[in-house]
Each structure stands twice: as structure tokens, then as C-alpha cells.
Write a structure and sequence with these properties.
By secondary structure, the protein is an alpha+beta fold. It contains four helices and three strands; from the N terminus they run αβββααα. A three-stranded antiparallel sheet has the order 1-2-3, with no helix packed on it. Strand 1 and strand 2 form a beta hairpin.
Amino acid sequence: MAESISSAEKRTSVKSNIFGVGYENGEQISVGASYKGKVWSRSSSDLPSWIEWCNRTGEKLVNKEISVDEILKGVLKPVVLKELHSELPISVDWPILLFEGNTFLQS
């Protein structure tokens, strides 16, 4: 089982960027944030939809019930593998871009 970042490490370090993909109201969403306060998403849409996204995101940013510690609680430490595991994976989390086309595979 992978080891998560300890409380002591969280207190003495600053994560400059965080990005995640999840679901909201049954639709896949993405959101990123920087330590300096920038917030972004990989999605794109028309101007009214963008304004609505900004309003929803702003509500989350000022919501005092959302705990940064809870968000980072499950963050895992990366581990460099020196060889392949002998076990087969039960699933693979492929980037969504793989299913939308192969443009990122071309050099």
C-alpha cells in the first residue's frame, strides 16, 4: 500500500500546484489551483457557461466547511519503480485525451 504524506511533511512544505479530475452533478470536471491563488479548469465553453463556472468555483473558494487538510489527506508520495511488478494491474487510469483522439501521441 502506498504511503501518504505525513502531517509533519504537510506542515513544513508548500504544494505550489494541485490538479484533479472528478465528478460534479454526474459530469466529469477538472480543476487546478496554484499556491498564488490562480484557479483553472481544462474544460472550455461559451462565455455564459464560463461565468457560471466562475460563480460556482467562487462559492467553493469562500466555503469555510471545505478543509484543505481533508483534500490533501489522501495525497500519495510518488515512488520510482526500478522494475516492473510481477502482478498484473486490475485497472489503468488512462488520460481522457487518449479517448478523445490521438493528437497527444503524435510528435
